[in-house]
Amino acid sequence: MARVTLARSSERDGWSPLADPPGVRGSSGAEREIFASPDGRFAAGLWEREPDTWSFERPHDEVSFIISGAAEIETPSGQLHRIGPGAVFVTPRGSKGTWRILEPVVKFWATYETDEVSDPTVRVIHEGDPMTWSEIPTAEDDPNPPGEEWLAYRSEDGSFSAGVWRRVPETGPMELPYDELAILIEGDVDVSGSEGDAVTAGRGDVLVTPRGFAGTWRARSAVRKFWVVHKHPA
User: Fold this and answer.
1) Which of 24, 50, 74, 106 has the fewest Cβ atoms within 10 angstroms?
2) What is the β-pairing status of strands 29-36 and 16-17?
3) Residues sharing a CB contact under 8 Å with residue 201, sequence separation 6 or more, in sequence order
4) Mean of pLDDT over the chain
5) Is the pLDDT of residue 208 over 70?
6) Model's pTM, two decimal places?
7) Which burial class, exposed, middle or buried, applies to 155 when counting CB atoms under 10 A from its CB (0-12, 13-18, 19+)?
């Protein structure tokens, strides 16, 4: 059976030096892969880097949540995106640009290898930007107001998506037909599985709930989370 696990963005156990070459300043960095699908097409983890400048071209879809720091991303057209804590950074396959890290950056990232051609536009959704929230249906006997979410990205084949979800304190069953990783933006949560596994998570923690996980979700306060989902091929 699938088991719930937890990664704390504030801890550095299991982190390794970045394998990519240094940028203009040759600054240091590190990352930790938290999860990878069996076929290797989907992965997620945590990443940090000191101030530096370098160019990139994405060979895959990537969506990131900025935990701390400040940076600028300039596209080939000259458009300048500024990112900071709470920003969602979307760089689909084929997107290009230049990173300029102004203050050390820590991010939660997820990548998806796809052969589908998608819009390569770089996008940044900032904390506090006006968003259209969609209501999530709940069970008829659930006395709590329904949760809401907004979608930041969905791959062309529909197998990879990311967004932000929020809901009031609640307790209820949790059973997933897909892989989900979520970093808590706010709130305190207890998740317990049918195999006796259990975690307690707070702000900055990443919950890893693979496909097939069954258990109980207990939110002790209002929760807001940035989530990424990987749906396995039918």
Assistant:
1) 24
2) antiparallel
3) 6, 184, 188, 189, 190, 191, 207
4) 93
5) yes
6) 0.94
7) buried
